[in-house]
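1st attempt posting a full record on here, be nice pls
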Amino acid sequence: MNVRRLLAVAVLTLAAITPAAAQHTPRAASVSAPVQSQDITPAPTAPTSDVDVAPIPGASGPEVSGISIVSLFLRADLIVKAVFLLLLAASLWSWVIIINKWLALATLRRRADKFEKTFWSGLSLDELYSQFAQRTDNPMTSVFNAALREWRRAFEGGNPRETMLPGVKDRIDKAMSVTILRETDGIERRLGFLATVGATAPFVGLFGTVWGIMNSFSAIAARHDTTLAVVAPGIAEALFATAMGLLAAIPAVIFYNKFVNDIGRYSARLEGFADEFSAILSRQLDDKAAR
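the predicted structure (as tokens):
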């Protein structure tokens, strides 16, 4: 009986201990399915060649055409066109005068050199007068002819008396002085136009500039747009008017000053010849009066 009781107690004890031990026994980690490896491909690199970018329709700004002189003139206002034409005509006529005066002064200097060479060659006054009496294309020969004509008038009734010599000399000097003034005025003809263009052309161009800028501001106010495509044409017209004014004025001023200096030197040359010729005639008058 005792043995049975001991076995029963042992069985009960084992039965009580077994569930608790089962609760505290660690479980083995469950083996999951093997992880599959993934192929890692490198990221695509940026293209090294040129990429053509197609323009998006309607996304581009307004096209600005090239600015030329003809396009500026055609787009200009009526008043600005009139300014362009006026300055262009003034510039062309100025160049006509410039070329004409340049050639004329060169010819006068060449003829003066030739005349002085003949004058101082030792010929008599009568021989010189017969050679240059009909020559009116040279101011220096005109001065010579005027003086010698007055000289011959003094001897039409014979040798003048000594009391008449001062009057003869004075008439000869006045004849040469008047001839020099007349010839100088002929050489200076049309130089006043160059002076006028040089003084007024920049202001005429400035008037066109102001008018063009006014038109530009009017376009801005009408379109409520200050982009370059709206402002640029009017500003270009305005600045081109100023450029036309300077284009006409600068050559006119430069060549006007040059021609004035050249004519002044030529006039001084005529006056120097007149003084020398007057001294020669005065000496001959004294010699003839002393006989």
